[in-house]
TrEMBL record:
Protein name in UniProt: TPM domain-containing protein
Gene3D superfamilies given in the database record: 3.10.310.50
Residues in TPM domain copies: 27-142
Pfam families, sorted: TPM_phosphatase
InterPro entries membership: TPM_dom
């Protein structure tokens, strides 16, 4: 566990999320998820966590492991077609992780998700958080639309509202 990472997480806690993701940006993200889900039968959740604290921080939990915990906690795996996708941003580390349920993950694979994450991180490094998230949602939606097209009368199984931790 590096002291630099601990310091960053302790200092950049939740204030950074409020600055980069004000209500206007969270509303735009929710609208992008709704628009994307109109093109496919998958489910997308976006979660931004300002920084780790407590046990996850002092265990030096990597962003990927934390994303898996959030995926399980929000029950994103609990969709009819096993096609739920989590886009998780750990803001203090500027690390994006995509966790996908087995139905869609088997079709897109690790390399496909990594390409989307890296594109988002490029926008984040340039300070374009809203643009990066929306482009990521659009890219995930394209993958879902290709493998799980929209079904008339389908239901929205998971909330489209972004989660701020």
């Amino acid at each position: 566990m590096g002291i630099k990472r601990i310091g960053k997480h302790l200092l950049e806690h939740r204030w950074r999320v409020r600055r980069e993701f004000p209500p206007r940006v969270l509303d735009a993200i929710e609208k992008a998820i709704k628009a994307g889900e109109a093109t496919h039968s998958g489910q997308i959740r976006f979660v931004v966590e300002g920084a780790l604290d407590g046990v996850p921080l002092f265990r030096d939990q990597p962003a990927r492991e934390r994303a898996l915990d959030v995926f399980a906690h929000l029950r994103i795996w609990d969709t009819h077609h096993n096609n739920g996708v989590l886009i998780y941003l750990l803001l203090a580390d500027r690390d994006v992780e995509i966790v996908a349920d087995r139905g869609i993950d088997a079709k897109v694979g690790h390399a496909g998700w990594e390409a989307i994450c890296r594109a988002m991180e490029t926008d984040f490094r340039a300070g374009r958080f809203e643009q990066g998230v929306i482009k990521g949602i659009e890219a995930v939606s394209r993958e879902l639309a290709r493998h799980f097209p929209h079904v008339a009368g389908g239901s929205n199984e998971l909330s489209d509202k972004p989660v701020v931790i």
